[in-house]
Amino acid sequence: MDFGLIAILLVMGMAGGFAAGLLGIGGGMVLVPFITMIFTARGFPPDLIVHMAIATSLATIMFTSLSSVRAHHKHGAVLWPVVRMLVPGIVIGSWIGPWIAKQLNTSALALVFGLFVAFSATQMLLNKKPKATRELPKKPGMLAAGGVIGVVAGLVGAGGGFISVPFMTWCNVKIHNAVATSAALGFPIALAGTLSNVYYGWGEANLPAYSLGYIYVPALVVIAAASVTMAPVGARTAHRMPVAALKRILAVILYALAAYMLWKAAA
């Protein structure tokens, strides 16, 4: 890779890592559109661009989530019992998500990404208040919720925070705890999804050199190196910001990225 590309990927990694720590979204919602732009400019096969962007983004979350959750854990904000209940469903769903993505062409996958992100942003802005009696479901419900989070996260290459954070806050989990717990969920999502993307992308025709399944390894290495340095900064910032500001930031970011991916789907 040339120096210019490395510099761009480093900046992307820093932005993604900061977003992961700040918002508990794993950075994938920020990274996928930008990686898509770069792969398009580099002349990657058009029918594989979005698949590779999603897979590469998801793989970086393995590193970002570990750095982010460590910072949140120091604040005592991670709800580990909730993590344990969600992980079984998440692992299953995160393996299935990339398989679904493989069945879709680039335009359809970009459309799915854009619609899910726009929906998530709308939910954040509406800021509907849950009933005072609402609480997290029991184990069967948490297994199902984890499965849904995993499928969608694996499908769109994110850490799942854009679903798990609203889900937890709707169940009366405080926003800072929801963000921190979502960060902890990022690693199992990313690990299962990455293995799935390697498996389903293995042997795919026309993959660029240095690809591991659908994952473009050079971009993974550079982005991951940058993101792990910024994730703790984002996490520390999250614990100093008011709830309303966190939700507005997340919504604005998601709307902008959704717009680009919807444009990509129509192009």
Write the layout of secondary structure elements.
Blueprint: H1 3-23, H2 28-41, H3 49-74, H4 80-102, H5 106-126, H6 139-156, H7 161-170, H8 175-201, E1 211-212, E2 215-216, H9 217-238, H10 243-266
Antiparallel strand pairs: 1-2
Helix pairs in contact: 1-2, 1-3, 1-9, 2-3, 3-8, 3-9, 4-6, 4-8, 5-10, 7-8
Distance between the termini: 27 Å
Number of strands: 2
Looking across the biggest beta sheet, what order are the strands in?
1-2
**Which structural class do the helices and strands define?**
mainly alpha
Task: Tell me what the structure shows.
With 267 residues, the chain is mainly alpha-helical. The protein has one domain. Helices cover 77% and strands 1% of the residues. It has ten helices and two strands, in the order ααααααααββαα. The chain has a two-stranded antiparallel sheet. The two termini are 27 Å apart. The model has no long low-confidence stretch (mean pLDDT 82).
Summary keywords:
267 residues; mainly alpha; two-stranded antiparallel ribbon; 77% helix; globular
Concise overview:
By secondary structure, the chain is mainly α. The chain contains ten helices and two strands. 57% of the residues are buried.
